[in-house]
Design goal:
Strand 1 and strand 2 form a beta hairpin. Strands 1-2-3 form a three-stranded antiparallel beta sheet. Residues about 1-40 have low confidence and may be disordered. The radius of gyration is 18 Å and the shape is globular. The protein has helices at about 95-105, 125-160; strands spanning about 45-60, 65-80, 80-95. It is an alpha+beta fold and about 160 residues long.
């Protein structure tokens, strides 16, 4: 499959942002002065700026029903540190997929907000779905506020536009 927006020119930054700072405000600076090199190489990065859970939907696959969290993602595309475009798209993701992402981030020593337990009564009940929806919104907000630089590539991959 094609990878959209995975423009990584350096390995992901695994440093933590100081509490209260907005890492996503830090734009990459071109390595050269104002004049471009003869090759005209440009550094292009897509940076997620907002994640909002807008809705939920129940889907059935292989005889099993599950909830999908409809999530709207907003990003900015920067070329040599200059904003060139903004983008917005929506995808649906299962709670189990979000739990797997959380495990990957934990393995990278990224401190995340606590997710509700995966098995919690009837996972299709409106109270469980609503509780998870609120917790997930806090989860995404925490990740972007505290670890935007470190997790951006992983989030772009996780929220790949559905083709």
């Amino acid at each position: 499959g094609k990878v959209v927006g995975a423009h990584r020119t350096a390995p992901p930054n695994k440093t933590r942002c100081p509490a209260g700072s907005l890492c996503r405000e830090r734009l990459p600076t071109p390595s050269r002065s104002d004049s471009m090199s003869d090759s005209g190489a440009e550094e292009q990065r897509e940076v997620i700026t907002r994640i909002t859970i807008t809705d939920t939907a129940t889907r059935t696959e292989g005889g099993k029903s599950f909830t999908v969290y409809i999530t709207e993602i907003e990003s900015e595309v920067l070329v040599n540190g200059v904003l060139t475009e903004t983008s917005q798209w929506s995808v649906g993701r299962r709670y189990s997929a979000i739990v797997e992402l959380d495990k990957r981030l934990a393995a990278m020593e990224i401190e995340t907000a606590k997710l509700p337990p995966k098995k919690f009564g009837n996972s299709l009940s409106s109270s469980v779905v609503e509780g998870r929806k609120k917790a997930l919104q806090k989860y995404w907000e925490h990740l972007l506020a505290e670890h935007a630089e470190a997790v951006n590539g992983d989030l772009l991959e996780f929220f790949q536009r559905d083709s």
